[in-house]
Amino acid sequence: MADLLWLIPALPLAGFLVILVLGRRLGEPGAGVVATLATASSFLVVAATYFDLLGRPEEERNLVLRVFEWVPVGSLKVDMALAADPLSIAMALFVTGISSLIHLYAIGYMKGDPKFPKFFMYLNLFVFSMLMLVMGENLLVTFLGWEGVGACSYFLISFWHDRESAATAGKKAFVTNRVGDWGMMVAMFLAFSAVGTLSYGAINHAAEKGQIAAVTATGIALMLLVAACGKSAQLPLYLWLPDAMEGPTPVSALIHAATMVTSGVFLLTRMAPVLDAAHPWATDVIAVVGAATALFAATIAVAQTDIKKVLAYSTVSQLGFMFLAIGSGAYVAAVFHMITHAFFKALLFLGSGSVIHGMHHEQDMRRMGALRKVMPITGFTFIIGWLAIAGVPPFAGFWSKDEILLYAFANNRALWAVGMVTALLTAYYMTRQVVMVFFGEARWHDAAAAHGAHGDHSHEGEPHESPWVMTAPLVVLAALSVVGGGMQLPFSKSTHWLEHWLAPVVHGAEADIKGTWAYDNKWWLLVLAILVASAGIAASIAVYSRGRARPIEPTVLADGWRYDSLVSAVVGGPGRAAFQAVADADAGIVDGAVNGTGRVVLSLSGLVRRTQTGFVRGYAAIVGAGAVLVLAWFLLRGWT
Amino acid sequence: MIAAVVPTTTWYLVLAAVLFGIGTLGVMVRRNPLVMFMSIELMLNAVNLSFVALASRLGDINGQVVVFFVLVVAAAEVVVGLGIIVSIMRRRASVTADDLADLRG
Amino acid sequence: MALFVFVCSAAMILVGALGVVTRSNPVHAALSLVLTLFGVAVTFVALQAHFLAAVQVIVYAGAIVVLFLFVIMLLGVDRAENLRIEPLRVQRPLAFVVSTGVAAVVIAAIVRARDSLADPSRGLAPTGADAHDANVREIAREIFSSNTFAFELTSVLLLVAVVGTVLLARRQRSPGAGHPVRP
After folding, report:
1. Handedness of CA A255, A258, A259, A261 (dihedral sign)
2. Which residues of B touch A619 (CB under 8 A)?
3. All domains of chain C, ordered by start, with CATH?
4. Contact B82 C60 (CB under 8 A)
5. What confidence score (pLDDT) does residue B66 get?
6. Mean pLDDT across the stretch A27-44?
7. Which of A279, A347, A389, A396 could make an S-S bridge to A477, C-beta 3.0–4.6 Å?
8. Domains plus CATH for chain B?
9. Considering CB atoms only, which of C88, C102, C109 is closest to A628?
């Protein structure tokens, strides 16, 4: 099975190449079918590998395939190698699985788009990069995938590139990610200087054995945090994610909900032993960043009117939860929440895409309402997603969020409190969204009449349910959101299936909370979480459905605490001055030195040029003089 | 008594050296291309003279063989050189070496 | 006797050489060159190089100088060159220095080595009975046995020189070429 590991990233890569060459000929929906089949077959190979790993004893669940020697430079020897261990296969499973569903969905969503094949080409390239990221055996292969997903994110966000806002959003995403990439590179340098290799196995092994100094490990941890903040949209680098909603909805679902944004969480989990070997305050920083981001984004989501922006800020907030988990030492909980979040967030995004598609590209929630009657499947699945994210048992989100809060309480009660407030707000704004879109009065009649009056042929402008290619993935994801919590139930040790599965990877670094007050009283905390979620839902229904209180949606929240303008002011003002100074220094000093050398040579040669008079007699005289001197030297040399 | 003084090889070689010097002077001072060429012939003759003198001193016939070849090559050189001079001076008859100064910096 | 021959030939050589360098009329310079070549030929005879003396006269004085005179007459460059002016001011002093320098250095070397050159010329005495063409025989033996390759090469060289010069000196028939000056 180890020999076939290369198939996992190779199949989407093959899909990319096929569509690159034959895209125009395949057209609609051929290109989409090819892309979906490529991803789905990769999923099958991952599933086969999973079952293979299951059949092995716990110590042997680490398959490595060395494809070729990539960078043999001096003492740095890096191979292009893929590793299949519990963490990477868990990631690969949901990456390929959800990707396949979203590919299928996109066949329906992108129907009629003139650049249909190109979309699927980029999607397949993205899946390839993401698989390289998670299945990499060393930091450099992961970095290859890291950069790849960043590039594909840029391509796909600015897919409708003739829209100014889309192009700008793509650039913003790329540049912000670059800051994170700097962090990853410094982390790689540090790891290499400490251990002498970039391979995960060697680095984690050295960290476990205590061979990495705490200072170095802290440095690596903080740099990885910077990288993760960029990719997973945490403070202060989160601002690209809301703008990234300019891309088509399948892109938002795949990249900015389920897969790419989880790379940061994955990376930190991958390097868990190193985080464990660092100073304790490093993981505290991670937890604080996560909690702060979660609360920050939740407050903004409360005031958004665009259906996708709510979900975007919600993603930032949920990722904050995952970082809080990692900072509290709960790696298993982080991965658990990552998986369940992938299910229900993809579901919510695809559902919103279905709504947008059905509403003929209307995205403002204030012009929607009572859509569950017109789009029943979308509405039903969306409601399941809502219940999952709000933290209502027995849906998936409840179990994973509760696990995180448990470990957070054991680590730091203040952060737990922040987490609880965020959970409350999550329930509140998600309920708000569901009520505004699917319940209440229908506010889309005017827009529909306008559409009908313009002779819009599709159902006289009325919203309609989406075709089966779009609703089938919704159903599958809804089912997963219902049962997904089953992989890590807190009832007893034997139901901690995910924890057992991931044990070889994180056992050393996982916080042991047995014996803490939190562990002993976890049932009370569970009940408290249910109460908080119910309170949020009830409050939201009271405001938006029954109209019992006025909605609190201050502009400062809608503007995202004006963080964007702050960044623009800093970078545009003093930032730009600094950049200009550096550029001038480069032009002046570096270019000046080079050009100066040229000028010196020119002037010297201008002087030398004057000896070329063109007079043959003059040349003869000089040659003669030289000959005399040479002869004289020979004569004097032997004058003994 | 004065007839007993026999010119030694040294004398011939000194004569050749002087002839060579005069030839060099002619190349550098004269501007007419043909006269410059003739001065080069003087230098070649000086060399021939030295070869023959030394061949005589050392009893080796190869010195004279070399002179033979030098003569042949000098003839070929003169032919080609005069061909060049003819093709240049066809334009204007009063071209001097100083006028052919186009290859300058 | 040998001394007398030497003095005469040296005089011929030096007078002819100075004539080449100082006569402003090219035709006079060519005739001075002939004088020098004759002097050299006489010296060759004194040094037992009879064949070479003959070849010198026939080839050098008889063919090469004639060629010079043909060209001078053909192109009409027999106008005298004005030797008083010298456009490159540093040229004349430099030329004097260089030529005296060359001669001086070589003479110094020769004088240094005069002891090893001290034997009066032994001469290449004839070795066999057929003494009257011994020189030619010896030269021929050398050329056609150990220097055959050089001999062949020089014949090729002559061929190339002839062909090349014919091509070089051909009148161009292309339009726009300068009018050839009629002598």
Report:
1. positive
2. none
3. 1-79 (1.20.120.1200), 136-183 (no CATH)
4. no
5. 95
6. 89
7. A347
8. 32-100 (1.10.287.3510)
9. C102
